[in-house]
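[09:14] KT: can someone run the structure on this one? pasting the chain below
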Amino acid sequence: MVGRTRTAVHPTLRSPFLRAFRARRTYDHRHDDARPWLFAIAVREIARHHRVEQARYRTLLRSAHDRGEEELADRVADAATPQTWRKPLVEALAGLSRRDRDVLLMIAWADLTYEEVARALQIPVGTVRSRLHRARQQIRKSLHRRTALELA
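[09:31] RB: done, structure tokens below
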């Protein structure tokens, strides 16, 4: 391989594509876009990985240390860094139901439409909308509560 760099792909990302390749004969060719089918496979694979992920989240939360009293200016400056938002975001995502989190991540990170998510998860579009709304509300509430506590 001259001029190419091989990068390692995390097994959680590789596994859905291997499953899709093995199940390629089951794809319904009436659909022009295979992304929802692929994401449905990915969601099922990630759901299998969910228990390990939850254990990791619980470990991260237990390992957090108490920073003690700091000046308000320091706390505000800390609140602006991405590293500071990691733990609250992990907590907020871990607090969502698997169904709500799947919809949120498929729309936010995979950039699927409501219709594509509905097809991938085999649920009505209205259910996608309500799960997304609920997930967004819970994330906002969790992050707002966390920010208020840290700045108090």
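[09:33] KT: thanks! The CA atoms of residues 36 and 120 lie 4 Å apart.
[09:34] RB: yep, looked fine to me
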